[in-house]
């Protein structure tokens, strides 16, 4: 990590970015036809945004709230890894212990020799989901403890030689859950609640589906890739794979959890252990993406971030955190094709976009130009971020990638001063205001007339000029 990478943003800059991110998410949720989107952002030492858009249950017309619960699936691996490192700090186990040292019934299975470090980093060569993974389609129940032990003892469990390559495995993390129980003398749920969940005050986080809170879970939905509509997917207990994929949480609880992984925070682990936990071990096959010990490492703009994604039947979720820059973003969606990763990365990009430019020094009232506008070609925002005006097209997945920066010419005119050469770089945008000082219309970009979206009407037929 270099010293010139983005750091903690100015609070006023961050507040403007978060206000806009909330509005941007609202549009994207409807535009992408995702039933619901819940998001939270933690900056420095506090939650800067907690928001929800759309439905927790479409059929019942139940709105999604910031307290709606999501199954966060493979986020569970970061909690499991944290618990392993906690026990290592206490001297109760070592990362280079063999799984067989703690689980004698592994016998002569090849997995008995796999170390905890290899399991944490997906280096043990273990089968991903067993020889029958149809529990992911809810055709059968997830494996129980006896079935998990049978899977790891079978000849089919070891696919590759240890340390041959990155090979993701839910079964391997299920095995780590058994090791944690053996090393601590407590159930996985008891251990994680005491050492992480209760310690951080995460009131909406748990290790597994809880029937007493059934009404609090957002309903999960199928994809649009194989049908023109979505159907609900019932929630299930992940049983012995809870340590790999069982957790539930809210976005605000998740960013609070990841804030405990910021540098200088010792609520869960020492800085030395946190550095070791996020030390990259494998390239995962995509440029800029690596895997450490229960943490994925991604590049978002100029930031190197750690976190994890989660794929559960009906819920797709993503969290990313910059431990040195003290930013964490979590986005949870209740569709099996939910775009949680691009939505989460967009939050980071907006923070850095807002902090990237010197603010306008003209003294002009920037807010008079802002709003959401439409032409036949689509919808765009003019937003004030970090004391600068930007034109952001809402159909773009990355709001910081192909925006246009605007400069005030006079009290009714802007000029495009930074933009792609394919856009209207250098041209002016002329505004008309109503009697209340609100934008009534504008000419531009592309010299086309745009009106505020809330007043835009699409005709039944767009007719050719007569």
UniProtKB/TrEMBL annotation:
Can you give the residue ranges of the Beta-lactamase-related domain? 33-339
Q: Name one Pfam family in it.
A: Beta-lactamase
Q: What is this protein called?
A: Beta-lactamase family protein
Biological source species: Solicola gregarius
Q: Which residues form a coiled coil?
A: none
Q: What is the lineage of its organism?
A: Bacteria, Bacillati, Actinomycetota, Actinomycetes, Propionibacteriales
């Amino acid at each position: 990590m270099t010293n010139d990478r983005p750091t903690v943003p100015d609070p006023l800059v961050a507040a403007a970015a978060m206000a806009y991110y909330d509005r941007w998410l609202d549009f994207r949720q409807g535009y992408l036809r995702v039933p619901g989107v819940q998001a939270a952002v933690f900056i420095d030492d506090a939650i800067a945004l907690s928001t929800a858009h759309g439905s927790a249950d479409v059929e019942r017309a139940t709105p999604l709230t910031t307290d709606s619960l999501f199954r966060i699936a493979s986020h569970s691996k970061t909690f499991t890894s944290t618990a392993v490192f906690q026990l290592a700090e206490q001297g109760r186990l070592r990362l280079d212990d063999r799984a067989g040292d703690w689980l004698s019934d592994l016998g002569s299975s090849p997995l008995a020799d796999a170390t905890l470090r290899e399991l944490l980093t997906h280096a043990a060569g273990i089968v991903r989901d067993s020889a029958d993974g149809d529990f992911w389609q809810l055709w059968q129940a997830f494996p129980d403890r006896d079935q998990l032990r049978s899977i790891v003892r079978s000849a089919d469990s070891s696919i590759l030689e240890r340390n041959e390559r990155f090979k993701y495995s839910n079964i391997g993390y299920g095995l780590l859950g058994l090791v944690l129980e053996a090393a601590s003398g407590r159930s996985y749920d008891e251990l994680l609640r005491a050492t992480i969940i209760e310690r951080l005050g995460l009131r909406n986080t748990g290790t597994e589906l809880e029937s007493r809170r059934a009404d609090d879970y957002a309903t999960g939905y199928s994809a649009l890739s194989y049908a023109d509509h979505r159907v609900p997917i019932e929630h299930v207990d992940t049983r012995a794979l809870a340590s790999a994929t069982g957790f539930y949480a809210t976005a605000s609880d998740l960013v609070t959890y990841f804030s405990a992984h910021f540098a200088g925070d010792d609520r869960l682990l020492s800085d030395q252990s946190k550095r070791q936990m996020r030390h990259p071990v494998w390239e995962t096959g995509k440029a800029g993406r690596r895997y450490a010990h229960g943490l994925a490492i991604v590049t978002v703009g100029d930031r190197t971030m750690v976190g994890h994604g989660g794929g559960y039947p009906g819920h797709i979720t993503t969290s990313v955190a910059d431990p040195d820059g003290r930013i964490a973003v979590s986005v949870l969606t209740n569709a099996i094709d939910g775009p949680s990763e691009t939505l989460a990365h967009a939050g980071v990009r907006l923070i850095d976009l807002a902090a990237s430019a010197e603010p306008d020094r003209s003294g002009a009232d920037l807010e008079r130009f802002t709003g959401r506008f439409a032409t036949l070609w689509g919808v765009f925002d003019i937003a004030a971020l970090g004391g600068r005006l930007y034109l952001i097209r809402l159909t773009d997945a990355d709001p910081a990638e192909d925006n246009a920066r605007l400069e005030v010419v006079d009290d009714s005119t802007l000029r495009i001063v930074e933009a792609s050469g394919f856009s209207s770089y250098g041209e002016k945008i002329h505004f008309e205001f109503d009697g209340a000082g609100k934008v009534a219309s504008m000419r531009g970009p592309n010299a086309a007339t745009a009106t505020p979206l809330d007043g835009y009407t699409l005709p039944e037929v767009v007719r050719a000029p007569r």
